[in-house]
From TrEMBL:
Keywords: DNA damage, Methyltransferase, Transferase. Residues 13-96 form the Methylated-DNA-[protein]-cysteine S-methyltransferase DNA binding domain. PANTHER family: 6-O-METHYLGUANINE DNA METHYLTRANSFERASE, ALKYLTRANSFERASE-LIKE PROTEIN 1. Pfam families: DNA_binding_1 (PF01035). SUPFAM superfamilies: Methylated DNA-protein cysteine methyltransferase, C-terminal domain. GO terms for molecular function: methyltransferase activity. One of its GO terms (biological process) is methylation. This is Cysteine methyltransferase.
Length: 118
DNA sequence: TCGATGACATTGC
DNA sequence: AGCAATGCCATCG
């Protein structure tokens, strides 16, 4: 099974799982780091999920990181996009209203993988 | 190869 | 009730 997975070509990293879950987020909806972490087991700490978003830039597939915000609905990672407005514009383009770097009606647009995918 | 960093969340006092 | 510190995985230099 795993005598020495040192030469593993593609170990199922936690990041890969996060990227997949984020990809499942429908347009016009938003999710949070803690929720995704909890959906994956909540044993990694919410932080790791946020790092996965940054690593999304290195993912083979496109990851709608603009649909992922912190627990307060704040666009924390907007500064990590191509432009600090790319995230807000992307959300508004999908019908999500953003004011003061915060998602309006965030609680209503909230998308829980453990519930919606149930 | 080793050390430090990095898009949050939760608990404790 | 509010403030502070810690935990976590992976990638970068």
């Amino acid at each position: 099974m795993k005598p020495t997975a040192q030469t593993a070509p593609k170990p199922r990293n936690f990041f890969q799982d996060v990227h997949e879950v984020v990809r499942l987020i429908p347009a016009g909806r938003v999710s949070t780091y803690g929720t995704i972490a909890h959906y994956l087991g909540a044993r990694h700490g919410a932080r790791t999920v946020g790092y996965a978003m940054m690593a999304a830039h290195t993912a083979d597939q496109y990851v709608p990181a603009h649909r992922v915000v912190n627990r307060l609905g704040h666009l924390t990672g907007r500064l990590h996009f191509a432009t600090p407005f790319a995230m807000q514009e992307a959300l508004e383009a999908e019908g999500v209203r953003v004011e003061e770097d915060r998602v309006v009606e965030f609680a209503r647009l909230f998308w829980d993988p453990g519930v919606e995918l149930a």
